Amino acid sequence: MMSFLKEVEGFKSENVFRDVVEISRYHRIQGSREIVDAAEYVAKRLSEIGIEYEFLNDRYDGKRYHLTLPSPIAWELKRGKLEFEDKVLTTNDSPLLVMAHSPSGEAEGEVLPIFKDEDWEKAEGKIVLVGEDWREAYKRANEAGARAFIAYRKGTGRAFPYIGLFLTKKDLEWARIPALTVPETFANELINKAKKGGAKVKVEVETEIKESEVLPVLYAKIGEPPYLLFSAHICHPRPGANDNASGSAMLIELARVLKGKEGRVGFAFLWIPEYHGTQAFIPKAKLDEIYANINLDMVGGSEDRAKSTIMLVRTPLSRFSLLPGVLGTFLQLINSGGKSFSGSPLPRMKLKEYPYEMGSDHDIFNIFGIPGVMPITWPDSYYHTSADTPEKLSLESLEIIGKAVAATAVFLAKAEKEELERVARGFAMKYLGELNLERKIEVAESLVMNGLSRDSKFLGLNVGHEIEEEGSIKWVEKGIISLKALEYKNEELAKRYKEITEERMISVHIHEYLMLSEIVEEEKAIKALKDEYGEVKEEKIKEAIKVLKDAGVIKTK
């Protein structure tokens, strides 16, 4: 496989960094004009490197749905200010001072920190200060008669946190008060002053809620189908360098490097707002032309500054593919640096492969039957804050991930059939072997073979065999399960679902269970989930399935 690394030596992390700097100049909030401007910047760069593209745009209007996701309002930030004693914060300091999608408003009054449920009884006429569950707390602040809402996030230090409300037109029936964020250090000052006799602030927020705005969906293709599709979400606030100017910029460099290197697969590139854009793209795409997805999200985190590890999130078992095996191998090869005392290669950076986890646009492709993986640098000390600036990025991370992704693409496009089959069998054995080392598995092998059968159809191989079952569940309203959409259907069902999925991993297990249940019957789906993850909360999963059936999201075949 080393020969394929030579074909991508032209990948330059410095090129990625330059585009990160440019993209991070835009305040790329979903529903705003600047996210459109950022997409148009990418389109300009594609023209400069000779890549044809098209816009498959949708709209934000606060009323329509992007499949299962209610569209947020079209919204623009004008200005914001917060005054406390001799301190003044403005949107010149950071646009994050105003929470995304906040209504306009002015307020002056006493700050009420919210620490326990009883504190809400004193919220009327106050400016509430909240450190968690912000969206739910914002609604409660409106209902309690608070004058304004201030949010902070623990662990952000002097940086402003990014918190978006994602309000819809329906939400505007109750959402009236201005919403702001402050750095943790500033929040602590307010809390200390409030405890010692009272803290008073004055806030001003000016925003524009528009009838609609473009939801940009930028799509480029090299070669002919089937396509290996690369995706990156272009949204998030200024600067948002690692999240996710890094992935958006890397796609530009990948398109440059991969031009002319297509073969049994072509290459497609997709820039979208996270989740909403991908779900707007799905109905417009020819899904049977897409072989697999590599989603690039936060690909430039540094070990020393951001405390990041390079993670490779594999496909779920329900969408097994050789893709993570190829990408994982190239990541290890490129990540080799020093040598052990006997001469074996050592890793340059921390690197680990993980079973399927949710949290970015690879989720949508997996839900719609397209195997999706995600290389990501995580954690990131500056995640969703104003401190996520370009100088924090690591050129080394960008190089390792970028070259590994490019080499994976060329390998899938040009490797000899026999080599691809060898790698497919090898990765299948490795994957099943890893599971067997941890637990006794029952049905995973048949799903691995089913995934290899799909690989064979797209890549012209002769490995694997298809499962000949109908599955037990039909996904009626297909897409990421949206709590807000459930609330609009039935508040009681939404409340139950929220309680069930309080642990984030349970949501992953529910989505994977649904994907498995499209392929195999109910009992096998649970067994497969246990093969994949070990211990799962079976009763909670079954309870969630009942909620989704009652809500009409799914039905039994």
UniProtKB/TrEMBL annotation:
Residues 483-539 form a coiled coil. CDD domains: M28_like. One of its GO terms (biological process) is proteolysis. InterPro entries: M28_fam, Peptidase_M28. The keyword Hydrolase applies. GO terms for molecular function: aminopeptidase activity; metalloexopeptidase activity. SUPFAM superfamilies: Zn-dependent exopeptidases. The sequence shown here is derived from an EMBL/GenBank/DDBJ third party annotation (TPA) entry. This is Aminopeptidase. The lineage of its organism: Archaea, Methanobacteriati, Methanobacteriota, Thermococci, Thermococcales.
